[in-house]
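Worked Example 4.2. Consider the chain below.
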Amino acid sequence: MLAAGLWGFGAASALVLGALIGLGSKVPRQFVALAMAFGAGALVSALAFDLTEDAFAHGGTLPVAGGLAAGALVFFTGDQLLHRRGGARRGKRVAKAANNGSAIVLGAMLDGIPESVVLGSTLIAGGAIGLPFLAAVAISNVPESLSAAADLKREGHKPSWIIGLWVAVAVVSGIASALGYVLLGDMGTTAIPLIQAFAAGAILTMLSDTMIPEAFADGGNLTGLATVFGFATAFLLTTIS
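Applying the procedure from the previous section yields the following structure tokens:
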């Protein structure tokens, strides 16, 4: 459990790194957007080869189909409920909720919790953390908090408050990873394919709904290339891990 929590916290700590970069330097928005696209491509590869393919190999068609659909619907429903209450999502939309700190935290956690739960569940039954998925999560986290930190600073928030916000999100992600290991472990290894597919559906919905559109908004025509480079990098890690 401790190892799962530390892995989850470590991957989410990239949020703190991104915030520090965003506060300490003026990074061009196009660069941030292309980094976000790269991270999205890496996550797509990790979802396809680390989660969905593995889930199909061990569970077959029904757990994968059911898990993907359930994950997508749960994320979509939670996301819509959050927005109706004034919440916000990744990147620029996180920053737009600058007058509602709890909404920012909820929006970031809504993205990060499925990722963290997957990280924790990979340790069930003596498994090892998947390097491609871990790298993809970390890579995608940096541009998210980098962009949001810069916008929050312009809104008048103190740097200490901004860093504290992302540290809190990283801690919650670590807790989610530890809980994923404990709670899902009680379900037994037969439930892991369903869990993997569920998380893949939730994260893929997030990518399509928020991360990729925001990357294209500032990245322009180079967004597709950056996404493919991210996909190829994560796939290379899959082949050598």
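Confidence is low (pLDDT under 50) at residues 89-103. Residues 60 and 193 are 8 Å apart (CA to CA). Compare this with Example 4.1 before moving on.
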